[in-house]
Amino acid sequence: MSTALSQTAGWRLRCSQARTLFPGVLACVIVAAAASFLSEHYGAPVMLFALLLGMAMNFLSIEGPQAVGIEFTARQVLRIGVALLGLRITLGQIADLGWQPAAIVVVSVALTISVSMWVARWMGFQSLFGLLSGGATAICGASAALALAAAMPAHPGKERATLFTVISVSALSTLAMIVYPMLAQALGMDARLAGIFLGATIHDVAQVVGAGYSLSKETGDVATFVKLMRVAMLVPVIIFAVMLSRARTKNAGEATGPRPPLLPWFAVAFALLVLVNSSGWLPTAAVQVGSEFSRWCLVAAIAGIGMKTQLKELASVGLKPVLLMLGETIFLAALVLALLRWAV
Cβ distance 269 to 235 under 8 Å? Predict the structure, then answer.
């Protein structure tokens, strides 16, 4: 009897929580649907549309019953979307390209993030901001920014820094999608070299696909594979971000409460899904559904982050962060071009 009563009480509690979250989650999903529609019809990054529409509706996170659900979407739904990114890649795709592209990806990601952290400190920012912006530039754009932000400790400027990074990297990725294919043609690259260059330099997956297939099918295939290799770098970089965050907290004497796990659950899930997807056990339909659900989770999450942010706060970041991310983009492109001459 007592067991039945406790189960009933638990079910009622979950229903109550779901009713509390529903208005805010629904608002984020509606904004995500609107952003997807605009992206499909006007060709701009869906993340950028989701951010702008979310910021236009930021009053929902201040007043009314939507605030709790918006917070839930911006945090927990974000982590679910990041975990499901593992369905986009397999170990076989990485191995098929040989060691040279893999070496280019590892070296370019490591150097770009390292230089970004050093320059961020030199410009007066925290090194974690350099890790956030450098990781977004070097790995997979807005998705990497959201994943790294989820792994970093909370601090007053974290959400504003994340929002600025997502907006900047989306805009730079769109610009690179237009400019980099013309640069590859001007340099006389063949399909394989052009694919490696585009896949190793353009920030977001969608822009890599668009740029690669605008040149040729072979270029698009190679660019997509190289880009997915960069996505796979998300796991070690998240591990590094967590370790760095814990070390900074310990050195500052701010460690209170239980210590967080070394690797967040969504990073573990990401790695496991890469392995499962590589095994071939999952049917193609399941992989496609999971990848599409991941995209919706990320778009809804960035809409939630936009709703939580005041435009006046974003405008206060100044010129230096813009110069930092522009410099990171130029550095990555120049580094990959140099590595291409050496390794391929």
Answer: no
